[in-house]
Design brief:
CATH architecture: 3-Layer(aba) Sandwich
Number of helices: 10
Oligomer: single chain
Low-confidence stretches: 225-232
Structural class: alpha/beta
Mean pLDDT: 93
Order of helices and strands: HHHHEHEHEEHEHEHHE
Number of domains: 1
Shape: globular
Strand order of the largest sheet: 3-2-1-4-5-7-6
């Protein structure tokens, strides 16, 4: 049974679509010109399934930074409905497992992956990053993009990430942290109000990783311009997920970034 916190978080991510995320994705693609009478292709998705800052371009840039390679076993923790996972499978040849606590994301992710013919390369599991349903040392890479903001127990998260990584495996992430500008202004894409937002300063997580037995390879603030390969998406995943609430979240995001209430980092750490 999920906790009250988990229920509030799930409700936040379901309110824009009424829980029917798949229909919302397909409707958005059709409105953007995708003929729903023809089979869906990976190329049709664009950034429609990349529910994180920087969209598809950021996923590609992070994969290059993390040196993702064909055949690697990747856990996409908090992977939503699978856009990054499918990119890692198609463009980088990885075998990807998506773990997410939001059931509509998992349901939509499985269906989209099957429609795209990628079900052998991308698998979906419902679950929490604090209690991952996987064996020790099961993955070569643990990958996250804007996935930790709803998790209050950062030490527990780091411990689980390390547990499921093999020795020498890599933790590759793009995450949002508390900036020096004060408390975050809501609504944000991950929180309607502060009760489900758990941002901490970046150095706190950096220290936790080092103390847990990770070796730092990269620790970088994202570039101020768009990542290489990024384009303005025809279909925004945030608009699909949040519906009419997306505009207010986008406005708050701009304010939080401008006032340095939030900061972002990309990083790669190696499990010793």
């Amino acid at each position: 049974m999920s906790s009250p916190l988990q229920q509030r978080i799930a409700q936040h991510y379901s309110q824009g679509t009424g829980g029917d995320l798949l229909s919302a994705v397909l409707a958005a693609l059709k409105a953007a010109g995708k003929d729903d009478a023809t089979p869906l292709r990976y190329e049709d998705m664009g950034s429609a399934d990349h529910f994180h800052g920087g969209a598809l371009g950021a996923t590609r840039a992070l994969a290059q930074l993390g040196d993702l390679a064909a055949g690697e076993r990747v856990l996409d923790m908090g992977g939503g409905f699978g856009g990054p996972a499918r990119t890692l499978a198609v463009e980088f040849g990885c075998r990807v497992t998506v773990l997410d606590p939001t059931e509509p994301f998992i349901q939509a992710g499985r269906e989209l992956t099957e429609r795209l013919g990628l079900q052998d390369a991308v698998k979906f599991f419902l679950g929490s990053g604090l209690a991952m349903p996987f064996a020790d040392a099961a993955f070569d890479v643990v990958w996250t993009q804007n996935a930790s903001m709803n998790i209050p127990d950062k030490a527990g998260l780091v411990a689980e990430q390390r547990r499921v990584l093999r020795p020498g495996g890599r933790l590759v992430f793009q995450e949002i942290f508390a900036g020096p500008g004060g408390d975050v202004v809501c609504p944000m894409p991950w929180a309607t109000d502060p009760s489900t937002s758990f941002l901490v300063p970046p150095e706190q997580v950096r220290t936790l990783l080092l103390e847990a037995g990770f070796e730092e390879r990269f620790w970088l603030a994202p570039p101020t311009n768009q990542p290489s390969g990024a384009t303005t998406p025809l279909v925004s995943a945030a608009a699909i997920v949040h519906g009419p609430n997306a505009a207010a979240m986008e406005e708050a995001t701009r304010r939080n970034q401008a006032e340095q209430r939030v900061v972002g980092y990309r990083a790669v750490f190696v499990r010793r």
